Amino acid sequence: MQAGSGAAAHSAATAGEKEPPVPLLWKVSDEDNSLYLLGSFHLLLPDDYPLSRDVDLAFADAEKLVFEMAPEELASPQLGLQMAQAAMRADGGALDAQLGPELAAKLADWGRDNAAQLAATGMSVELLQRFEPWFVGMMVTITQMMDLGFTPALGLDAHMGGLAQAAQKPTAGLETGTQQIAFLDGMEAGEQMQMLEQALDQAAAGAEPMLALHAAWRAGDVEAILEGTVAEMRRDFPALYRAINVERNDAWLPELEARLRDDGTDDTLVVVGAMHLLGEDGLVEKLRARGYEVERVCSACTAP
Length: 304
What we know:
This protein is of the alpha/beta class. Helices cover 58% and strands 11% of the residues.
């Protein structure tokens, strides 16, 4: 099934009013203050709003918000330009020469089937040949999601950043834009190739796996996410999984613990991609292992 037809079917199936998403939300506490950890989906649909009252209450209770990247950086038009500049191939050669025949053929097949969708992002198949694999992998995923109706402007990170700005609550990022670009551009060649291959495999699978992942996020279904996308990445792309999930989680832990140890009583709402919270490598279990009190905040999980 073509991605466009998947989007049409999805829109028809969700035309009716929906219940708010069941949040992937945890409260981590010490004696003085708390962190709320909220699992994000970076691109969302219009009917993913309004959010659960659990999220509203966590936002109201938090004096500060922390994101993977500070909202003002995430919304900056310069970020995309900086990312593209960093991703330009330094050797002047075509991407296909690095990919090898099999992966280059996958990219060519995807480009042929999605030329119009790619053009809507300001890119072309020919232009992609000038970039590093990590950037092309991102473009494949973003193109697929936007064709299904998902948009970055509706992502949970962007939404919560807007709420914080309106409420004049301080915000911060666990990474700067420069750090995130340096991390992506600094990945080893094998990790970058895995990132591109995973994106192409997901796109080739059609709309259903992406919509299933989104449905699992909406349902707050931890096990479905762990047994699906997370298990698949750990199994098929272990170097990529370690680079983008495990190592970044470990780098973020000291900052989160510092906020818990702060002598003040300010509570913080932390909004990061859902995968960063879940499973044995996730921030929830890592903080629990350090002795903090951890509870899931989920009214819908306990409702009759």
